[in-house]
Structure to design on (619 residues):
């Protein structure tokens, strides 16, 4: 290792000269040789990353044009899959609608809520800060607390929610919270919100913590009078980069909702009331082995995520320098 | 006139400095009440699970359920051992699987991410530096939940179905981990890297001898995230051999027995939730320190 580094030194000084005489590609090639060690160090990550993230994402388009059952070689069927998806597959259309509703609550709604909570926590006593941060982050760490929700929402009259509401006379008979289409969406939204304050919340929380306190004092001198003015004049403009990071996490969370509904309401849920795009894809992918069709669904999902990501970046651009 | 006004304001600032510069007492109280309500909603399921898991059998079936335990007992946990004695695969095997997977994923992920993050933050001259950095930022979108179904094809074609590899390999290249480490490492002054080079250290030595020892908060954060992810991992369609499944699947099996087993189900839920919570409490300040550098510039 040590000898390698000493060998690096003279080569680096030489590089200025060949820049003018050699072509650009030759120069790049030369530089790649100089930084061999760099490539060796990023290789383990990027090889695995390519296999398990890049290939799956990129492959979804070509596979979307085929009929593929994992065993035989994919058979090209043109636009058939996409045609079926948008014209003949009512459940897919329904799942888009469900995903958009759920995505609104897990995405923008929970993002704003995280922001407000992080903002409010930030003004508290240090001990309370730690305490509340823990309380709000904890649900996203422990999906095992699901078993509480199943007890609470149990459909017979001894289910906690049912018995409570029966006792106070809000309802006359036990309600099937997780199988009655009237309630399913609301229930899934509540549980989803409950566990949606994850890493994005922590990033915002840390962003607030890092704000320069003297900005507020300067603001007070300049005539900022209350918390709201402070928020819009000082806080948001100086937190752009944390906001963007949390937004990216929110997008990826919002478009991949599905596991909560699957756990609480079963798969498929009654009348597909909480069936999302993710559920639809995993139904075709890992249950029916129609990978071509599943790929088409995933491809549409990926493209949507990328577009929304681009849009959000454009909106937040003025705050990130 | 203007001068005078400024002076008054400065005094006001100093008087109020203990609390917040701009903010009334009523506002503080209101905020506290709002957060307290929201906090109860967030914490109640966790609190109630713990209470239920400590209740003896006669208290479990009191109706309506009490929100506290009269005579706490660990009988649910010992029942869990009895119940799991009837399972096809002994409980110890599930525990081993979970612990093994978690330890391997966390260790390898941190090693791999440290190496890559060092190059992506401290060697801006190597060709492809910008490309790889852009790639990582875009890839933050594609979490394992999003790519899971397409990953299934890759994993199946590689013949990794029903092996530990199916859990471990996809979890190692964590984009989020790499991103956080890279952000945190780029806070370190480049002079340190240069002086290490002058002293004759290669890239690998600079990374592990100079930079990584300074990254305790970021590495703690990565440990927590990796730990949470791996600890909650379930085989799903990838691993269906019973003796390779993880602890969360036991919870599903026991909870499926319904109300009669709720004490035991809660005991499993509590066993599953305690490790990540404890690790997080210990390392909370580290996490916040790391997340403070997570900002993304366009």
């Amino acid at each position: 290792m040590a000898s390698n580094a000493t060998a690096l030194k003279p080569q680096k000084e030489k590089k200025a000269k060949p820049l003018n005489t050699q072509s650009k590609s030759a120069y790049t090639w030369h530089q790649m040789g100089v930084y061999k060690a760099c490539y060796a160090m990023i290789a383990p990550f990027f090889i695995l990353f390519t296999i398990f993230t890049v290939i799956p994402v990129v492959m979804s388009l070509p596979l979307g044009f085929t009929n593929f059952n994992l065993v035989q070689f994919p058979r090209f069927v043109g636009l058939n899959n996409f045609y079926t998806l948008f014209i003949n597959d009512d459940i897919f259309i329904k799942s888009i609608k469900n995903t958009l509703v759920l995505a609104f609550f897990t995405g923008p709604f929970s993002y704003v809520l995280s922001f407000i909570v992080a903002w409010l926590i930030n003004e508290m006593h240090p001990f309370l800060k730690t305490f509340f941060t823990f309380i709000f982050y904890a649900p996203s760490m422990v999906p095992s607390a699901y078993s509480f929700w199943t007890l609470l929402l149990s459909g017979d009259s001894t289910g906690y929610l049912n018995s409570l509401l029966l006792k106070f006379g809000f309802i006359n008979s036990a309600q099937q919270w997780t199988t009655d289409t009237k309630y399913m969406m609301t229930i899934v939204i509540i549980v989803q919100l409950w566990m949606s304050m994850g890493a994005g919340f922590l990033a915002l929380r840390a962003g607030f913590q890092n704000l320069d306190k003297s900005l507020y004092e300067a603001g007070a001198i300049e005539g900022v009078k209350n918390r709201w003015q402070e928020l819009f004049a000082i806080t948001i403009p100086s937190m752009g980069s944390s906001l963007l990071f949390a937004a990216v996490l929110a997008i990826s969370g919002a478009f991949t909702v599905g596991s909560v509904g699957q756990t609480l309401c079963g798969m498929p849920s009654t009348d597909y009331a909480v069936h999302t795009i993710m559920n639809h894809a995993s139904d075709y992918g890992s249950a029916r082995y129609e990978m071509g069709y599943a790929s088409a669904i995933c491809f549409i999902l990926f493209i949507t995520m990328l577009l929304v990501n681009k849009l959000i970046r454009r909106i937040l651009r003025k705050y990130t320098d | 006139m203007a001068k005078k006004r400024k002076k008054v304001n400065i005094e006001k600032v100093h008087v109020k400095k203990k609390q917040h510069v701009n903010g009334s007492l009523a506002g503080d109280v209101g905020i506290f009440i709002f957060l307290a309500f929201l906090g109860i909603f967030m914490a109640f399921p966790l609190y109630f699970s713990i209470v239920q898991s400590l209740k003896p059998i006669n208290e479990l079936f009191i109706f309506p359920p009490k929100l506290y335990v009269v005579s706490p007992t660990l009988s649910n946990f010992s029942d869990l051992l009895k119940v799991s004695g009837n399972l096809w695969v002994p409980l110890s095997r599930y525990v081993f699987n979970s612990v093994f997977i978690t330890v391997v994923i966390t260790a390898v992920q941190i090693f791999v991410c440290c190496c890559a993050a060092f190059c992506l933050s401290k060697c801006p001259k190597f060709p492809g530096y910008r490309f790889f950095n852009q790639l990582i930022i875009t890839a933050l979108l594609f979490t394992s939940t999003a790519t899971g179904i397409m990953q299934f094809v890759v994993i199946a074609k590689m013949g990794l179905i029903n092996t530990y590899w199916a859990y471990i390999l996809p979890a190692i290249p964590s984009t989020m981990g790499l991103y956080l480490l890279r952000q945190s490492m780029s806070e370190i002054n480049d002079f340190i890297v240069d002086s290490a080079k002058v002293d004759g250290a290669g890239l690998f030595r600079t990374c592990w001898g100079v930079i990584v020892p300074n990254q305790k908060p970021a590495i703690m954060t990565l440990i927590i995230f990796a730990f949470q992810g791996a600890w909650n991992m379930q085989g799903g369609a990838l691993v269906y051999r019973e003796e390779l499944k993880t602890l969360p699947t036991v919870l599903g099996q026991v909870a499926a027995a319904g109300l009669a087993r709720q004490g035991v189900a809660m005991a499993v839920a509590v066993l599953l939730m305690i490790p990540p919570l404890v690790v997080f409490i210990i390392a909370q300040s580290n996490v916040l320190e790391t997340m403070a550098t997570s900002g993304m510039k366009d």
Notes: The first strand of chain A starts at residue 66 and ends at 67.
